[in-house]
Design a protein that fits this description.
This protein is of the alpha+beta class. 44% of the residues lie in helices and 14% in strands. The strands form two sheets. The chain has a seven-stranded mixed beta sheet. A four-stranded mixed beta sheet has the order 8-11-10-9.
């Protein structure tokens, strides 16, 4: 019988491997006939313990499908969240279940492991992803077109499962999101993930090249100071921001000019939005001396803020490199980490027809969704 200890071991195994999960991404679960143990929102898989999971009453979760919710997406998700919170078992009152709880519950497997590998998202965030998924995985996998996470996603998957005959699909690829894998034993979960990664790996055109790293604060120190001040003034502690610099061969190629930067110029998945933003700021400072960078960087920052309504979490300077910026060092480093992941996705997508960003309305939904504001707050 599969136990909570099995779930903890699997969760930590995938959560500690950046090839599968970064920061607080991903979620996992275990179920029996009456109870679902699902990762709590804001927890991290890499070091999760038993208390990091939320015990849910499956009978109460099933009742959610019998209800009619508002058409407005924000109101609908808020109402569903209220009902999910009411489905927690006694003693779980202070916890918040994963936004994907309903999806975990409806999948007909004891174990469900949801991750966001860059290699997988090279497929799910590509122009030809749907066709390539059919060619490579056939009936073993489902492909779910881009859709808002939460109840809307769970509803779409449930409709597909209800209309499907034969064996249940153990692999669900979510366009511009990631993959769900289900099985009844830890061994089978690992086997399926190896199959997915080996199959996709065999199709990759090239690997991203992150060698040739430049020291963190080299010649770009003046720009870092300017961006740190701007990030601090945009946060809750004016003047206390941080800018973390990165340059390597892959990033150097991306910042050659605006055209080269295009493959990382928008958001691939909800996690990229949460941690590194949906609109990286690319600044062409021309031949401006480093000592005079404050004005052009400040002007570009203000223009970006006016256009998007939020400060950038990633700032790229043409010919220099990329900065993760935020009100804290943790937030800045997470932004840079997810940007690097986006660079990987861009490279891997070349094998499947080239990059495909999230649709504008889906980006807006994540930017304004209370659930993701909560997750960002907890993680940053």
């Amino acid at each position: 019988m599969t136990t909570i200890e099995d779930l903890i071991i699997l969760s930590r195994y995938y959560g500690a491997n950046p090839d599968y999960v970064i920061a607080g991404g991903g979620n996992t679960s275990l179920k029996d006939k009456t109870t679902l143990w699902v990762k709590g929102s804001g927890t991290t898989l890499a070091d999760i313990a038993a208390e990091g999971f939320v015990k849910m009453d499956r009978g109460k979760l099933a009742q959610i499908w019998e209800k009619t919710y508002p058409e407005d997406p924000a109101r609908r998700e808020a109402a569903v969240l209220t009902d999910m919170m009411a489905a927690k078992m006694p003693g779980e009152e202070q916890k918040r279940p994963s936004v994907e709880t309903l999806l975990h519950d409806i999948l007909p497997f004891a174990l469900v492991i949801h991750t966001h590998p860059a290699l997988v998202n090279g497929l799910t965030c590509s122009a030809g992803g749907a066709g390539e998924a059919r060619n490579l995985f056939g009936e073993r996998a489902l492909w779910i077109p881009e859709i808002n996470p939460g109840y809307t996603l769970s509803r779409a998957v449930k409709d597909v499962l209800d209309g499907r005959s034969g064996d249940p699909a153990a692999i669900i690829f979510l366009q511009n999101h990631g993959v769900f894998v289900g099985a009844d034993t830890p061994e089978k979960i690992r086997e399926i993930y190896r199959y997915i990664m080996d199959t996709l790996g065999s199709k990759i055109v090239r690997e991203p090249d992150f060698s040739g790293k430049t020291p963190q604060y080299g010649p770009s120190a003046p720009a870092a100071a300017v961006l740190a001040d701007l990030a601090g003034s945009a946060g809750s502690a004016p003047g206390a921001g941080t800018a973390v610099f990165e340059r390597n061969r892959e990033i150097a190629a991306l910042v050659e000019d605006a055209a080269a930067f295009y493959p990382v110029s928008s958001a691939y998945t909800p996690d990229h939005i949460v941690y590194s933003g949906s609109a990286p700021l690319f600044i062409d400072t021309g031949n401006t001396p480093e000592k005079d960078l404050a004005e052009p960087i400040g002007d570009a920052w203000k223009t970006h803020l006016k256009k998007t309504g939020r400060p950038p979490k990633i700032v790229a300077l043409r010919g220099v490199g990329v900065f993760g910026v935020g009100p804290s060092e943790k937030a800045a480093r997470l932004a840079l980490e997810l940007f690097t992941d986006a660079a990987k996705v861009a490279v891997y997508s070349q094998a499947f027809g080239g990059p495909r960003f999230m649709a504008a309305d889906k980006i807006d939904f994540i930017n304004n969704w209370e659930v993701e504001h909560y997750r960002s707050k907890v993680s940053g």
